[in-house]
């Protein structure tokens, strides 16, 4: 995967970990070539509003398009399958994650799903 997204070539990489801290906006990251967002489902939990997230995704899409060779990589765990949670807050978060993933996939030029270490290109 690292080679596919050009993050092995020694360029400046900014890594956002949604399990640890909230994601930051694209302001002030002019020197980076690659920005990776890990733990998207965890980052969505405190703000489960798909409209707000779509605005955020579009801001990073504009950042990526503003200079050649920029890449934004989004990594999230699929929490939308399996047993539906009884807790209304958990259901709201789960639904928001699914809607955010759909909106993000519509904006991305490539979408891959990893399952058991095997990559499947969806888009």
UniProtKB/TrEMBL annotation:
UniProt-listed SUPFAM superfamilies: P-loop containing nucleoside triphosphate hydrolases
Gene Ontology process terms (BP): cobalamin biosynthetic process
Signal peptide residue numbers: none
Recorded coiled-coil stretches: none
InterPro entries assigned: CobU/CobP, P-loop_NTPase
GO MF annotation list: adenosylcobinamide kinase activity; nucleotide binding
Pfam families named in the record: CobU
Listed name of the protein: Cobalbumin biosynthesis protein
């Amino acid at each position: 995967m690292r080679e596919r997204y050009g993050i092995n070539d020694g360029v400046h990489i900014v890594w956002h970990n949604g399990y640890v801290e909230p994601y930051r906006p694209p302001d002030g990251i002019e020197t980076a070539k690659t920005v990776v967002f890990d733990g998207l489902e965890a980052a969505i939990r405190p703000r489960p509003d798909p409209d707000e997230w779509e605005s955020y995704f579009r801001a990073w899409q504009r950042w990526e398009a503003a200079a050649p060779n920029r890449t934004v990589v989004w990594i999230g765990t699929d929490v939308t399958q399996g047993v539906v949670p009884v807790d209304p807050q958990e259901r709201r978060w789960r639904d928001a994650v699914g809607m955010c993933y759909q909106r993000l996939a519509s904006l991305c030029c490539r979408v891959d799903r990893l399952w058991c270490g095997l990559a499947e290109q969806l888009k």
